[in-house]
Amino acid sequence: MTFDWSVVWQHRDALLAGTATTVLLTVMTMVIAVPCGMAVAALRLYARAPVRAVATAYVELFRNLPLILVVYWAFYVLPITTGLGLSPLATGLAALALNVTAYNAETFRAGINSIRKGQIEAATALGMSRPQALRRVVIPQALRRVLPILASTWVSLFKDTSLVSVIAVSELAYVSMQIRSQTFRVLEMLTAMAAIYWLLGYPQAKLVDWIQRRFVVTE
Amino acid sequence: MTEPNATPSHRAKDAGAKIIRYQGVVKRYGNFQALNGASLDVHAGEVVCLIGPSGSGKSTLLRCTNGLESVEGGDIEFEGARLPRDERALRGVRRRMGMVFQSFELFPHLTALANVAEGPRTVLRMRRLEAERRALAMLDKVGLSDKVSSYPSALSGGQQQRVAIARALAMEPDVMLFDEPTSALDPETVGEVLNVMKKLADEGMTMVVVTHEMSFARHVGDWIAVFDAGRVVEQGPPTQIFDAPTTERTRDFLSHLGWTG
Q1: Which residues from A are below 8 Å from B150, CB to CB?
Q2: Distance from CA of B23 to the nearest CA of A (A)
Q3: What is the pLDDT of residue A38?
């Protein structure tokens, strides 16, 4: 068996573009899913009962469905039910954002709930209103606690973006598979793909470790 | 509602006007009757110590004073007006009462200075510099001007509690409420907190103190209220409570503590 690694170099532009799309998908998903996750968490914690129930149903649905199913669902069902003709990229982004928002909502909710009641009482005793106590005391502490979890979610998401390849979003996995099927260089392309994911993922994982050490909460 | 066993109030001649008045306060937690008609007056400038066995209602009464707990029966008056039920009005009352907790409850994400400046900044809407100037003065008052930039996690329990006292004082309250302020402390740091409290008392601060430090109550307290089963069973000046208690409950409680005067 002979290997021809030149195939990787020949397709460098396509691979680079795929990598860029992967990074873009990751960043865009988080840009949507962090504020939306906060909003959903706030609804679950502070909204009226019916709204709270809807938010809870959303979180429990999307947290417990396989992401690939959501991706297919967004691709086949969303256009039919809504009449929206989204590009594969936008569809993939929507599926990822729906999934990660549900996770982030749970993360933020747990973070806020982890702040002791005594902290809110101390703020209240100073004369703060409930929104002031949340803004000045609870949320800053909760954010510190959830930052390492958000960072882990980020790293998982970076790898999970590969799932949107099933609906032909030309991110790194899709591009690699395309090159593979054109050139039949399976092992070379899989290795190249692995190398790129790892080289980008490893520093991120290290960054997460650093964040976890840096933001350890001491009381 | 009158207390069957409560002794009449023979306040010192220089006792100020009544600033807090508890009348037959009732509070339940499920089946547990935390307060069962507690009555007590606090005069301006006085140090009133609430003592009694665990679960006798003293902390609950303190927490009702600034509305951290709601009252189910009876009345609490602050400066002649009933404690408001409305949240907004209640906040106005709270900013005039400082509170110190057993577990300090400093804000761990803020430095000592920022902890103390937080109330003036957020509640009194002071400018940052002005709030920090006041915070510095308060930290100086509790002897911690060298710890301004320390985070709570870097401070000892006694230091944390002194920052917590400074944080409450920064609101320039009319009354200070202390909820077992030394119960969570190592024995060697209890003294520094009690000294700060004594200094405050000497300056004429009105203080309501839930405490198990009998010697503090004896020497700093102007008025002692003994709690049992959700009521004040005896109250009077420390000399009466500690040297000549008039009720069996007080004698029992003090003898359990091994109090010998």
Answers
A1: none
A2: 22
A3: 94
Model confidence pLDDT, tens digit, residues B110-155: 999 999 999 999 999 999 999 999 999 999 999 999 999 999 999 9
Rounded-to-integer distance, Cα A141 and Cα B246, Å:
50
- This prediction's pTM: 0.84
Instruction: State ipTM.
Output: 0.91
Cα–chain center distance at A22: 12
Judge contact between A64 and A1, C-beta under 8 A.
no
Pairs across A and B, CB distance < 8 A: 66
Amino acid at site B36:
N
Asked if B223 has any chain A CB less than 8 Å from its own CB, the reply is: no
Mark A82-113 as b/e (b = at least 16 C-beta within 10 Å): eeeeeebbebbbbbbbbbbbbbbbbbbbebbe
Instruction: Note whether B119 contacts A121, CB cutoff 8 Å.
Output: no
- Give Rg (Cα) of chain A: 21
Average pLDDT in the A156-175 region? 91
The alpha-helical segments, DSSP class H, found in chain A are 6-10, 12-46, 49-63, 67-82, 88-113, 117-125, 130-133, 139-160, 172-183, 186-214
The pair of structure tokens assigned to A105 is: 């909502």
Q: Is residue A74 a contact partner of residue A95, using CB atoms and an 8 Å limit?
A: yes
Separation of alpha carbons A46 and B103, rounded Å: 27
CB A46 within 8 A of CB A214: no
Which of A118, A132, A141 is nearest residue B122 as measured by Cβ atoms?
A132
Q: Which of A173, A195, A36 lies closest to A103 in space, CA to CA?
A: A36
Nearest to B184 by CA among A43, A125, A118: A118
Dist. CA A90–CA B80, nearest whole Å = 65
- Give the chain B residue whose CA is nearest to the CA of A116: B105
Q: By the 8 A CB rule, do B111 and B160 touch?
A: no
